[in-house]
What we know:
This protein is mainly beta. About 5% of the residues lie in helices and about 60% in strands. The protein contains 6 helices and 36 strands. The strands form 6 sheets. It has a 22-stranded antiparallel beta barrel. The longest helix is centred in the N-terminal third of the chain and has 14 residues, at about 1-15. The protein is globular and about 65 Å long.
Amino acid sequence: MILKKAFTLLSVSSCLTIYYGQEKNIDTVFVFDNQMKKVKLFHSLTTLSPADIQKNSSNLSEVLRFQSPVYIKENGRGAVSSPSFRGTTAQQTAFVWNGININSQFLGQGDINNIAVFGYDQMEIKSGGGSVIYGSGAIGGSIHLNNDLSFNQGFKGIFNSEVASFGTYNNFLKAAYSNDKFSFKASGNYSISENNYEVPEKSYINRNGKFYNTTLNIGTSYKIADNQTISWQSQLYDAAQNYPIFVENGNKSKYEAQTLRSLLSWDIDKSKFSNSLKAAYTEDNFQYFGVDNAPYTSGGLNKNYIFKNDFNYFILPKLNVNVIGEFQQNQGEGLRTSGITGTVKRNVGSLASLLRYFATQNLRFEAGIKQDFVEDINAPLLYSFSGKWKATNWYSLNLNFSKNFRYPSFNDLYWTPGGNLELRPETSIQTDMNHEFKVGDFKLTLSPYYMRINDMIRWLDTGLGYYSPTNTNKVESYGLESQLSYQKHFNKGHSIRFLTGYTYARSINLETQKQLTYVPLHKISSNVDYQYKFLRVYAQGMFNGLTYTTSDESKKYAIYPYFVMNAGLSATFMKNYTLGIKVNNITDTVYETVDYYPLPKRNYSINATINF
């Protein structure tokens, strides 16, 4: 029955693409996530370019730790890592690849260090709920990994190579060609590290910490008419993480992952309407090796088939309706001694409608509603409302209110022993208000927020020798996100960019009235870039406040505040050749984001880039 409903909804959404409007030329840049431009009309996002990502080239965890408000919980450099947005859990953060939610169907979250760090054209970090558009898990926030394709750019390429401390090597190559109708882009990277750092103050050696990963990205687009394109984007990812051990003769284990993501898109863009029809296939394989250099002990295979149609129509010049239909089938298979026995699957469908009203040039509104149809799960009706008002040239106000959700993962439902088929989805009601002030080249954003999460899923001891998930916690989160930025180009080749952010996060378990674990009360991150002609300098600083690691707020076991600073210098010669050096953790700080797993002290890297 749910399969019929989902296909019906998708068909209705697709059939709305009929004969309205007049033709117009498509943009010279094709973006796979066609919702992102609309999201930016009503929400503040942090946007990172490939050059920003390159500053923290070790892994995606480092990028987010130093350049976003997200708290990253990392079990040692390059090991298992998870995010926390606005005091929420990792399962309440959505990772979105080119408009497709890629959270693991087994875990319900993304392992940050098993997501490629290179090969994207933009990385967008959005705080706050987004389930109406981006689906399950978009409660605390979402991290968007986007690719685009340009036309009429000819041939371009870049090669970057880096050598760093702890036997670390990164290599990245990207090439692109386009004319007025055809665009092609490919990139690949290979990273490997012995990762054998030491922290003497903690008597810690990162034994068995080796990791490597390889990524291949391919994208192409063809204009079949002035207002239509057929586009394809794919990513192949292969990685291995060795799990750190605390003693020399400890048991060495590791985790290997292979990922395939492929997306085909047919886009029509006319003056009054646009339509994007997408078909995607994603596959995530993993194997756990209880003993290194032996056959794998357990593993899993997840396949997702996704069909999505996004129809957008201007009823009036100021009134726009957007209908999004989606169907997907999720399949999971446990391998060997995995807790998932055999093969499990589910069908998921959804229909969302958003209405946007542009009252004036400075005032606009958006209201959205969405119903998901999740097999064997009673999904709630979701809604969202946003309004943005530019009151003066120096002050803008943005208000957001939404209901969001996360449905249980395969592990939550089917793990043996302990899986619970009676689980309800987690739901949240939240609101935030963004105040934006502009004075000259300065911009200040203040964003207080409030969130109430019900039916939070926790794995609890059954007393029978195993754990089982249950809907137990109610959580209240409130706080403030703020950002101050400054950007200026001076005469004679000088330019400077400054960005600093402060977050205050109070996330309370309403049953115990205690702060959730691994949610810092305060976090400050700052980035400064300065360029003079061929010379570039940047510096990063990150302060992390008191972070509890136990549910009773014990300061004895808490992670105490710390400050870490990075810096880099690069010089460009003959326009196309760049040499650079980076120093990470200049302050030589002893710090950790997960108890017992310190991160590296001062370390170095040198890099070379060729543009062609």
